[in-house]
Amino acid sequence: MNENISFDDFVLSLTPAKKRFALSLIELYKRDKVNSDAISKITCANDIYRLMYPHLYGVKVEEFWAIFMTNAAKPIKVQRFTIGGLTSTLVDTRVVLREALLCQATCMAVCHVHPSGSTRPSIDDDNITMKIKQVCEVCNVRLIDHLIFAGDNYYSYSDEGKI
After folding, report:
1. 153 in helix, strand or coil?
2. Which CATH number does the domain 40-156 belong to among 3.40.140.10, 2.40.30.10, 3.40.470.10, 3.40.50.720?
3. Average of pLDDT values for 7-24?
4. Which of 18, 113, 137, 161 is the most exposed place for a label (fewest CB within 10 A)?
5. Whole-number pLDDT of residue 128
6. CA–CA dist 84, 79 (Å, integer)
7. What is the structure's pLDDT at 18?
8. Which sequence spans correspond to the domains of the chain?
């Protein structure tokens, strides 16, 4: 076998049955990684990054996720809300807040992927962060951070004093 073949090319070369099997193994690995690295409490942006890494590493389009937590910052639920394109994804703040209320979260963090690898927030990123923060304040849900995930790096609105 050619050792220089990319992972994507390798997967494309598989038969449909072997492809399903390989993708199932990858999904099981991701789930196990999430469970083995379970974070009992979110105390900083790096905790959010570590929790979300198995979900977001290698994602090739923008995705928007939320982590819903107890008042003690223990994760209750992690959920993806949107899958977008290469440069944007639409987020409906009402849908995100509805889920926070349904799982009785008192605080939450949101994150999204920049497939370009850039950690620099856009004006749209700033706007959605402030919009989510305002909606959360109305319902007494604390937004503790918005992380922009860019491969092996991240940008934290909280660390930068923007939340």
Report:
1. strand
2. 3.40.140.10
3. 82
4. 161
5. 95
6. 15
7. 85
8. 1-36, 40-156
Per-residue pLDDT, averaged over 135-151, amounts to 94
Backbone angles phi, psi at 115, to 5 degrees: -60, -20
pLDDT at residue 88 greater than cutoff 90: no
Q: Locate tokens 């934290």: which residue?
A: 156
Cα 115–120–124 angle (5° rounding)?
Answer: 85
Scanning the chain, the segments in alpha helix (DSSP H) are 7-13, 16-36, 45-56, 93-102, 123-138
Cα distances from 37 to residues 44, 79, 129, 156, in angstroms, run 15, 17, 27, 20
Instruction: List all residues 6 or more positions away from 76 whose beta carbon is below 8 Å from its beta carbon.
Output: 68, 69, 70, 103, 104, 105
Question: What are the φ/ψ torsions at residue 89 (nearest 5 degrees)?
Answer: -150, 145
Percent pLDDT > 70 in the chain is 93
DSSP 98: H
Q: How far is CA 143 from the centre of its chain?
A: 15
Residue count (the chain) = 163
pLDDT grade, residue 36 (50/70/90)?
very low
